[in-house]
Design goal:
With 495 residues, the protein is α/β, with parallel strands linked by helices. The chain folds into 3 domains: 2-97, Rossmann fold (3-Layer(aba) Sandwich), CATH 3.40.50; 110-327, Mur-like, catalytic domain (UDP-N-acetylmuramoyl-L-alanine:D-glutamate ligase); 338-479, Mur ligase, C-terminal domain (Protein-Tyrosine Phosphatase, Chain A, Alpha-Beta Complex). It is built from 15 helices and 23 strands. The longest helix has 16 residues, at 300-315. The radius of gyration is 23 Å and the shape is globular. The model is unreliable at 481-495 (pLDDT under 50).
């Protein structure tokens, strides 16, 4: 089969392309701004990439066009289509489908799917769960919306797990990051309803994606759809839903109906709880200690992620103690509190503490706050944290959460905001932070503002779900020669 993927450079569609190649299909694709690292990864797999969405690509005549949710029927001010290829597909009556539907039809059939859903922590928890199953010898397939440090790829088909101790065959396992974002312009259901999972993690649920959801109730409705398709409990059932007991929104979702085995985590009265600090804690199941986790991550959110992953792994036969042992070697995901460089600040006295520069994917106010709290817990109150961030998601650009930004940043010493491209006044939104807030309309000005205020020993935390205009390297170059090469040492994570 030949498939041509529209929007191939996104993390999900790029992972789908890799899986299709592993299945032996011919894969081509197109996107705007085809650039590394995704472009390099795809070309290394023998996938031909094309810049833009020109109608001439219709002549490729693939067996199926697979359409990413970046594609729409939108038109430019002059009336021309933004995606001419999609218009040509429709005019010609050529076959097309969505990415999640293609994945369901060609990869997930016959597998035990373990899906990780929630506003935050999906990528990290998916990577944790895949690693636990890998260490248990279960050879899981997976599709992770990021670059996991424990694997050499973000997506693979996996293999056939060994039989159970009593000789029963197992279904092959597939772990997937289950996104609530819409499927395609022609299918407005959330992606995750296509996956038909048997094990589901519901990590948390807040308002997000203001470009497609009107309010939190609309997102809760999509989560209820997911709950409805999980197999039932009982002697003939095989479905398990693992729910964060701290989330009122998830309690409302479950109150609307649950037909599967239910396990909770996080709250004081839950099936799975933690005792101890986030980087070293005991795992309790129904109040009994069943495992101990000691790892490099910090932050309460990561502790919760671990509980969820342990509960999901237990559903497919991995003992909590074995899962905890795997987490001790968990390397996290790129861009989740990734230490990019330790920098000797130019002009600083000999022996002065280096400046640490981190890269993190945090983009929602809650994610920003938990990321900052994780770093604050690590470095203590005496070390300065400089947050450098851009409100880049559609939700943030619309200003839907601007009022929460001061709350998300109140634990930092200075907050530098890139305000370019916003339709609202960032300085006004950050005014409650007083002199701690600095706003710049472009990246170069932002870099100059950081340089004017940085001190030896500062922790610079760059937060964005995009490339942030290459600000990480610009800061490294401007601050001084790194003492060590750029390294990848995860500290805390919010996906």
């Amino acid at each position: 089969m030949h498939i041509h993927i529209l929007g191939i450079c996104g993390t999900f569609m790029g992972g789908l392309a890799a899986l299709a190649r592993e299945l032996g299909h011919t894969v081509t694709g197109c996107d705007t701004g085809v650039y590394p690292p995704m472009s390099d990864q795809l070309r290394a797999l023998g996938i031909e990439l094309m810049e833009g969405y020109g109608a001439e690509q219709l002549a490729l005549a693939p067996d199926m066009f697979v359409v990413g949710n970046v594609v729409s029927r939108a038109r430019r001010p002059d009336g021309t289509a933004r995606y001419p290829l999609m218009e040509a597909i429709l005019d010609a009556g050529a076959p097309y489908t969505s990415g999640p539907q293609w994945l369901s039809d060609h990869v997930l059939q016959g597998r035990h799917v373990l899906a990780v859903a929630g506003t935050h922590g999906k990528t990290t928890t998916t990577a944790m769960l895949a690693w636990i199953l890998e260490q248990a010898g279960l050879a899981p397939g997976f599709l992770i919306g990021g670059v996991p440090m424990n694997f050499d790829r973000s997506a693979r088909l996996g293999g056939m797990p060994p039989a159970t101790p009593d000789g029963c065959a197992r279904k092959p396992l597939f772990v997937i990051e289950a996104d609530e974002y819409d499927t395609a312009f022609f299918d407005k259901r959330s992606k995750f309803v296509h996956y038909r999972p048997r094990t589901v993690i519901l990590n948390n649920l807040e308002f997000d994606h203001a470009d497609i959801f009107d309010d939190l109730a609309a997102i809760e409705r999509q989560f209820r759809h997911l709950v409805r398709i999980v197999p039932g409990a009982g002697p003939n059932g095989s479905g398990r839903i693992i729910v964060n007991g701290l989330e009122e929104s998830l309690a409302r979702v479950m109150a609307a109906g649950c037909w599967s085995e239910l396990r909770s985590f996080g709250a004081a009265v839950s099936d799975y709880t933690a005792l101890g600090e986030p980087d070293r804690f005991q795992v309790l199941r129904h109040g009994e200690v069943v495992a101990s986790v000691a790892w490099s991550l910090s932050g309460t959110h990561n502790q919760l992620n671990a509980l969820a992953a342990i509960a999901a792994a237990e559903h497919v036969g991995v003992a909590p103690a074995d899962a905890a042992q795997a987490l001790a070697q968990f390397g996290n995901v790129r861009r989740r509190m990734e230490l990019r460089a330790s920098i000797a600040l130019a002009g600083a006295p000999a022996g002065a503490a280096p400046v640490q520069l981190y890269d993190d994917f945090a983009h929602h106010p809650t994610a920003i706050r938990t990321t900052v709290d994780g770093l604050r817990h690590k470095v203590g109150d005496s070390v300065r944290i400089l947050a450098v961030f851009e409100p880049r998601t559609n939700t943030m650009k619309l200003g839907a959460m601007k009022a929460q930004l001061p709350w998300s940043l109140d634990a930092v010493d200075l907050a530098f905001c890139h305000s370019g491209g916003l339709g609202w006044d960032a300085a006004d939104a950050l005014a409650p932070l007083g002199d701690k807030a600095i706003v710049a309309p472009d990246i170069d000005t932002l870099v100059a503002q950081v340089l004017a205020r940085v001190r030896p020993g500062d922790q610079i935390l760059c937060m964005s779900n995009g490339g942030f205009g290459g600000i990480h390297q610009k800061l490294i170059d401007a601050l001084g020669a790194p003492r060590v090469a750029a390294v990848s040492r995860p500290v805390a994570a919010v996906a």
